[in-house]
Amino acid sequence: MIMRNSELIMVVLLLAVLSLCRTNSLACNEREKHALLRFKQSLTDPANRLASWSLTEGCCGWAGVRCDNVSGRVFELHLGNPEDSGTSTLVGKLSPALLELEHLKFLNLSLNDFRGTPIPSFLGSMSSLTYLNLWGASLSGLVPHQLGNLSNLRQLYLGGNPGLYVDNLSWISLLSSLESLDLGWIDLHRDIHWLDYVSQLFSLSELYLPHCQLNNMISSQGYVNFTLCLTVLSLPSNDFSHNMPNWLFNLSSLLALDLSDNSLVGQIPSTISNLHNLNYLNLSGNMLIGRIPESLGQLKHLEILSIFSNLLCGPIIPYQLGNLSFLSYLDLHRNKLNGPIPSQLGNLSSLSYLYLQSNELNGTLPRNLGLLSNLVALRIGNNSIEGTISEENFAKLSKLKYLNMLLTSVVFNVSHNWIPPFQLQHILLRGCKLGPKFPAWLQTQRFLQTLTLHNVGIVGTVPKWFWMWALNIQTIYLGYNQISGNLSHVLINSTNFHADSNRFVGQLPHLSPNVVLFSIANNSLAGQISSFLCQKMNERSKLRILDLSNNALSGELGHCLMRWQSLTHLNLGSNNLSGEIPESIGSLFSLKALHLHNNSFSGGMPFSLNNCTFLGLIDFAENKLTGNIPSRIGERTHLMVIRLRSNEFFGDIPQQICQLSSLIILDLANNRLSGSIPRCLNNISAMATIPSAIDDKFSTLKFSIYLGYQEEYLGYREDLILVIKGRKSTYSSILPLVRIVDLSCNNLFGGIPIDISSLFGLQSLNLSRNHLMGRIPENFGGMKYLESLDLSNNHLSGEIPQSITNLTFLSYLDLSYNNLSGRIPSSTQLQSFNALDFIGNPELCGAPLLKNCTEYEGPQGDEDVEGSERSWFYIGAATGFIVGFWGVCGALLCKREWRRAYFKFLNNIKDWVYVVTALKWSWVCYHFRRYHMISLGCLRGCNQEGREERGGGES
């Protein structure tokens, strides 16, 4: 019996070898051979995949060519890109030479590059085809209707070509033998009857239509004809915005249903239990509401259940989900589920991935989750989970690789010599209680890639074993603890190292060239900055993020900055650095953000900064910098933040600053700037538009680290200290939405430009403590998003414009110590401010000031009446003068006798005046001479008496 079996095996092997030999020795059809060579000529083959295609060899032995064993005719072409990479891609176009392969049944050209050419219509004439795969082949244009002629086609894959579109899908219903259809990433939105045509494919078992811009799953006929053959329905990333249609739940043969990343609304119907054969269900990324239906627990074959990123509420139904014994993947994160984590989840013995983070769950972590021996990933972060976690919670989790308890309140209570049963790759703990001692069990983890112990209450010195053990860990986050230790002789080799807000001392550690992010802000590190910058490395540094702010570093930057040319973010703020900013800073060509604030830097802004073409943030505030603000700053078109406050800059504000269309923060306060405010600030389009989280220009300054599990990111985020509403605050997460202009405490003069009110997105405007004059622009109320306005301590005059009442978001206002006059405009907003916000304007009245406008306006009313009466007096006097003048003069001109009598009268009057004047003058002269003689005699007598008195006294 054994001999017969061995003989049978030998015969089978011999037949197989003979079959292979025959395939290679088959005579190739010459016509088809030359057709294939012409097809090859239409392509370029950088990887020489078609090197075997030559005249000297038969085509049946060529790479990717399969021939019929009997006839020798070519019936299969396997020319899909095997590596999904550009190195082995065939490039060119589809040649009509393929038409000569009359017996071709299988054609695979997927993942090649046909340079955006359309699908040739001649493919519709290749009637023998049963398999056509052009997936991801860089095709574009209209999908030809002639493909409907391929009546024998069973598998059609045209997806992965975003340039393709369909105007009418009716031709698809002609493919009566079709079993599998993939049109993913093809634009199908032009045909609203797509569902009616596809549902007529009675042999269809797999339908893939992701990213097709479909917006309707409702049949125009009122019913859907899908047969029981359909096992896979994949419609993710479309635009469905209605309830889940009822016809879905009649597809009892479905094994996989994917409706993720749409905008489906309503509740998950209880009739979902009709899909009793389902093993894959993905409804994530929609807007589904309500509770998880109990009937979901009846899908006994379910292996993967993903409903994350919806609006589901209520508790996780315990006993129903506990029945899904085959479930290996459960993702319910980012919903509004509440209540405790049900202990019945511990019965899911096949469960490998449990994602419950970012809900509203509370209570404690069930201990029987520690019995899930197949569990690989546990993510329960960003919930209100509390209580104590002991060794029992991890008893049988020997396969656990990923642990996420970020933003929970759990307390770890394990023994000092605990040896966990698992070997983790990623630990993410934040906000929970792991300390106060540094966890010794960490050193048992040999394959760790990510270690996040952020704000976990660790106090004390880093153990000696830690730094050597940590050399191979890719990402380390130890921020916001009270960890201490001297870093002077430590080597950091992690790609990302973040240890802000601890108690580290000594000099800066040595960095290996592998480090990309190094942030150790807010510690007590000291020493010369130059010794760190000038450290020797065997390779070029890869460092992109360097944050040493809020330490006690000293010295000058020197010229070693040029060794760190990969830097994109540099923060040396709040140290004791001094000297001039070196020109070597211009060698950091990739720099995006530069913080040197709160140091003692002197001199001017380096000219070489012009080389940093990607610079988006400059923070040189609170130094001793001097000179003019260079006009070339306007050439940095990516600049979003300029913060130069509290320096000694002088001169005009350069007009070129208006060219910075992306600028959202301009802070030049507390300098010695003079001249007028530029009248072109309305050209800064980022401030002239409403802030939006969608249009986040600040995203170019973000730095994220993908951890490899779902959507878990860690990263570095910029922050700034800004003075808004009279308070100094640190802005970080909302910084991209801030829009401010602060030019306060300078020597600016002139008026407030009218165009500044075109900055509709501005939230804070501070022009206080300058020498501005003129009126407040009438259209100030157009800045409707303004929250803070300070124009105090200037020489502004006139009335407060009425439009200021439109500033409904205004919560801080200071107009004090100007020359404003008139009534304060009436609005709930303005009257809610303190009187001190308007003080120092003597001519200003009305609430909230105590000065009553009726008393102030009364005299003004009398003056108006008096002025009116005075006007009528002048009008009457002028009229009387004209009438009297012409009445007398007219009569004298007309009557000669009157004229003679009048002039005779004037002559008599003249003579009389002359005689009287002469007599009076003679009398005055006589009396003056007489008085003068008497005065001289008296004066001489007084002088004589004085001499006599002096003589008597001397004797």
Overview of this protein structure:
The chain is an alpha/beta fold. The chain contains 10 helices and 62 strands. The strands form 10 sheets. It has a 30-stranded mixed sheet, with no helix packed on it. Helix 9 (853-894) packs across helix 10. The N and C termini lie far apart (181 Å). The model is unreliable at 1-5, 11-24, 856-867 and 930-955 (pLDDT under 50).
Keywords:
955 residues; alpha/beta; 30-stranded mixed β-sheet; 10 helices; 62 strands; disordered N terminus; disordered C terminus
Mean pLDDT: 87
N-to-C span: 181 Å
Percent of residues in beta strands: 15-25%
Largest sheet: 30 strands, mixed
Unreliable parts? 1-5, 11-24, 856-867, 930-955
SS field, number of helical segments: 10
| Total beta strands | 62
Question: Which structural class matches the secondary elements?
Answer: alpha/beta
- Can you give the helix content as a percent range? 10-25%
- Radius of gyration over C-alpha positions, nearest whole angstrom: 45 Å
Global shape: extended
Topology:
Layout: H1 2-25, H2 30-41, E1 43-44, E2 65-67, E3 74-78, E4 91-92, E5 106-108, E6 131-133, E7 140-142, E8 155-157, E9 163-165, E10 180-182, H3 194-198, E11 206-208, E12 232-234, E13 256-258, E14 280-282, E15 289-290, E16 304-306, E17 311-314, H4 318-321, E18 329-331, E19 336-340, E20 353-355, E21 360-364, E22 377-379, E23 384-386, E24 388-389, E25 402-406, E26 411-412, E27 426-430, E28 450-454, E29 459-461, H5 465-469, E30 475-477, E31 482-486, E32 491-492, E33 496-498, E34 503-505, E35 510-511, E36 517-519, E37 526-528, H6 529-533, E38 545-547, E39 552-555, E40 569-571, E41 576-580, E42 593-595, E43 600-603, E44 617-619, E45 624-628, E46 641-643, E47 648-652, E48 665-667, E49 672-675, H7 685-688, E50 703-706, E51 713-716, E52 720-724, E53 727-731, E54 740-742, E55 747-750, E56 764-766, E57 771-774, E58 788-790, E59 795-798, E60 812-814, E61 819-823, H8 828-831, E62 843-845, H9 853-894, H10 896-954
Parallel strand pairs: 3-5, 5-6, 6-8, 7-9, 8-10, 10-11, 11-12, 12-13, 13-14, 14-16, 15-17, 16-18, 17-19, 18-20, 19-21, 20-22, 21-23, 22-25, 24-26, 25-27, 27-28, 28-30, 29-31, 30-33, 31-34, 32-35, 33-36, 36-38, 37-39, 38-40, 39-41, 40-42, 41-43, 42-44, 43-45, 44-46, 45-47, 46-48, 47-49, 48-54, ...
Antiparallel strand pairs: 1-4, 2-3, 50-51, 52-53
